[in-house]
Amino acid sequence: MGYRKSRDIIGTIKNVTVSRRGEKWDVSIQTEYEVVSSAPNPSEIGIDMGVNVLRLCQTGTSLNL
After folding, report:
1. Alpha-carbon dihedral of residues 35, 39, 44, 50, nearest 10 degrees?
2. Which residue from 43, 45, 49, 17 is spatially nearest to 30, judged by alpha carbons?
3. Which partner from 21, 51, 52, 62 sits 20 to 30 angstroms from 14, CA to CA?
4. Cα(33)–Cα(10) distance, integer angstroms
5. Which pLDDT band holds residue 51 (cuts at 50, 70, 90)?
6. Which residues, 6+ apart, have CB-to-CB distance to 30 below 8 Å?
7. Cα dihedral across residues 44, 50, 54, 57: positive or negative
8. Is the pLDDT of residue 29 over 80?
9. SS3 string of the chain?
10. What are the CA-CA distances from residue 33 to residues 13, 22, 30, 53 (Å)?
C-alpha cells in the first residue's frame, strides 16, 4: 500500500473528508490559519487584458484597446 503526502498540514484542522474512488482512498484536510499579508506596493499595477477600455487610476486617462 502506498502513501503520498502532497503538502504539510499548517494550522488548526477544521474538517477531514475520507473518500474512496475504486481501489484508492483520498483524505482531504481543511485547516484554518492566519495569513500575514504585506502592504501593497503602490508602484505595482495589475491590468486585466479582457476589457475594452483601460482606465489608469492614477491619472484618469482612458485607453481603448
Report:
1. 50
2. 17
3. 21
4. 7
5. low
6. 13, 14, 15, 16, 17
7. negative
8. yes
9. CCCCCCCCCCCEEEEEEEEEECCEEEEEEEEECCCCCCCCCCCCCCCCCCCCEEECCCCCCEEEC
10. 9, 33, 10, 39
Looking at the chain, how many residues does it have? Answer: 65
Task: State how beta strands 24-32 and 53-55 pair.
Answer: unpaired
Sequence spans of domains, the chain: 7-36
User: Which residue in the block uniquely carries the three cell numbers 504585506?
Assistant: 38
pLDDT at 55: 60
Please state, rounded to an integer, the average pLDDT across all residues of the chain. Answer: 78
